[in-house]
Amino acid sequence: MVIYLGSDHRGFKLKETVSGILKGKGYEVVDFGNSAYDEGDDYVDFAKMVAQKVSFNPEVSRGILFCGSGAGMDMTANKFRKVRSVLGVSSDQVYSARHDDDANILSIAAGFIGEEDAKKMIDVFLETPFDGEERHRRRLDKMTQIEQTWS
Q1: Given pLDDT bands bounded at 50, 70 and 90, which one contains residue 151?
Q2: 88 with 70: CB under 8 angstroms?
Q3: Contact assessment for residue 65 and residue 6, using Cβ atoms and an 8 Å cutoff
Q4: How many angstroms separate the Cα of 51 from the Cα of each of 24, 46, 63, 79?
Q5: Total domains in the fold of the chain
Q6: How far is CA 111 from the centre of its chain?
Q7: CA–CA separation, 28 vs 10, rounded Å?
Q8: Cα(88)–Cα(3) distance, integer angstroms
Q9: Element (H, E) at 142
Q10: Sheet of 85-87: strands edge to edge?
């Protein structure tokens, strides 16, 4: 599995920390930046790059996005077909989003979530499989129909 990372200036420090941890665990990590702290950058640019990659191959890739509120990254990522981004608020909620909804991008509010909680959510996000129950697949199929109708 390839993990794509992206952050703006408000998520930069946390993204850098997480990147090192994921690489240390043996994950293939592609960092779309920002590559240096830049107070004038825009979250949309980084969310777009990550979401495009996940959209192309959602079965074997995941994305993790970091910005101040997490909301901007999450909203941007969800504009792309086959992307199911979730704004993580707790490990339990992220578990549900992966297990039931097959979320493939996790957006983290670096301004509101501490480093330890973020690491826990990321571990859950990467280790929890989609359960594939019929009712969950049915709901995902309905989302796909909406994407195809309104995109």
Answers
A1: low
A2: yes
A3: yes
A4: 24, 9, 7, 8
A5: 1
A6: 16
A7: 24
A8: 16
A9: helix 134-150
A10: 28-31, 2-7, 61-67, 105-109, 85-87
Question: Taking a C-beta distance cutoff of 8 angstroms, is the pair 38, 65 a contact?
Answer: no
CATH number of residue 139's parent domain? 3.40.1400.10
Among 5, 14, 65, 67, the active-site one is 67
DSSP string, 67-129: ESSSHHHHHHHTTSTT--EEE---HHHHHHHHHTT---EEEEETTTS-HHHHHHHHHHHHHPP
- Catalytic status, residue 84: no
Nearest to 82 by CA among 67, 62, 68: 62
At residue 63, what is the residue type? G
- CA pair distance 10, 15, nearest whole angstrom: 10
13-22 pLDDT tens trace:
999 999 999 9
Cα–Cα distance for residue pair 53/62, rounded to 1 Å: 9
- Is the pTM higher than 0.85? yes
pLDDT at 71: 97
* Structural domain of 86: 2-150
As a whole number of angstroms, the distance between CA 78 and CA 55 comes to 10
